[in-house]
Amino acid sequence: xxxxxxxxxxxxxxxxxxxxxxxxxxxxxxxxxxxxxxxxxxxxxxxxxxxxxxxxxxxxxxxxxxxxxxxxxxxxxxxxxxxxxxxxxxxxxxxxxxxxxxxxxxxxxxxxxxxxxxxxxxxxxxxxxxxxxxxxxxxxxxxxxxxxxxxxxxxxxxxxxxxxxxxxxxxxxxxxxxxxxxxxxxxxxxxxxxxxxxxxxxxxxxxxxxxxxxxxxxxxxxxxxxxxxxxxxxxxxxxxxxxxxxxxxxxxxxxxxxxxxxxxxxxxxxxxxxxxxxxxxxxxxxxxxxxxxxxxxxxxxxxxxxxxxxxxxxxxxxxxxxxxxxxxxxxxxxxxxxxxxxxxxxxxxxxxxxxxxxxxxxxxxxxxxxxxxxxxxxxxxxxxxxxxxxxxxxxxxxxxxxxxxxxxxxxxxxxxxxxxxxxxxxxxxxxxxxxxxxxxxxxxxxxxxxxxxxxxxxxxxxxxxxx
Length: 467
Prior knowledge:
Blueprint: H1 9-16, H2 18-41, H3 45-72, H4 81-98, H5 107-139, H6 144-175, H7 179-203, H8 210-213, H9 216-222, H10 231-239, H11 242-262, H12 264-270, H13 277-302, H14 307-330, H15 333-369, H16 374-377, H17 379-403, H18 414-439, H19 444-466
Helix pairs in contact: 1-6, 1-7, 2-4, 2-6, 2-7, 2-11, 3-5, 3-17, 4-5, 4-7, 5-17, 6-7, 6-13, 6-15, 11-17, 11-18, 12-18, 13-15, 14-15, 14-18, 15-19, 17-18
């Protein structure tokens, strides 16, 4: 029997456009905050990396906290939409603040300014907005095909925005005169774009009622008094779900991968001798990724699920990054671009069906425990984005400092050039290999089918006994 459809095309497009908002923040920070701080403000890359890493300690707590708060929210707008709407205004303010570090204060005060603004953005406002945005996948439709479509459309907007930010930002900064004032102007423009797109996304969808979200078995449970659970209980539900841990680990690694590639502006500047190539490589990543996302819903149907498709895709993605390593040492930019595109095509299915995968993982928790924790479950997307992106950026700072990088210097040492090869070529390939190994064990769809069959069999047996 065909699944009921809940969304029109404009609901899906409207929902997906919300990732414009998320990625004007994420792409600007992951690709450019480090080089802004080291080469414009004059901060030490190692210290900045350490501050980012310390900031991430707060993120792990806030992700679970906001996920739990979303699960407990009851409002006219629903559970997730209020957090998504109002959280972004704080994102916009904090993003601008990061690029408004005063030049006339002490170095210690500059580091403190950055740390406070960065932590408020990531551990607070971005968390509330991003978890709510991701949780909407499970709250506005029960149709798994629509969830996959939403994920594909969402990430098309995400990669398109990221590609655009990486392509035009260097030129925009130069257009506005360069220096700190130009970076501040660009941050303000991006923040305004983000507020508009986020608001439109929130208003384009409507959450289903709790009654409509429930199926027949859930309606029986809903008739009982709602069981309350604490933040500690919610955390316990997550860590007892091995598929959540696998998805969370994969998401963190995916974001470290992206952050490492975003630090490619150093590789383009000092190895390839052309900073504008960052935009060219961004196109080689994002255009194939968007094409792959277009076909992900059909491919999921063809492969009769996400498991085999994701595993095959990341096997190709790992092979592609290995090709980039070889081409990099050969010094062939065309070959690097080709293998970059191959890797992106292979990685696209997991990006497109990740939200549906998390929804399936949430269903697994419900079937085993009887508790719905959609908001808490989707905390792994925010946790992965922030932890992965932050760790990737922090790692870049530490490695640059360790190699002896000198901010703004025309010529870097041999040790720095060697480190840039490791950062841009070897680390992404190794990350893809680890994700592939994780995906080989992540057949959560089969686990859900098994649990559902067991529950139906138990219900049928109980019914037979009462006759």
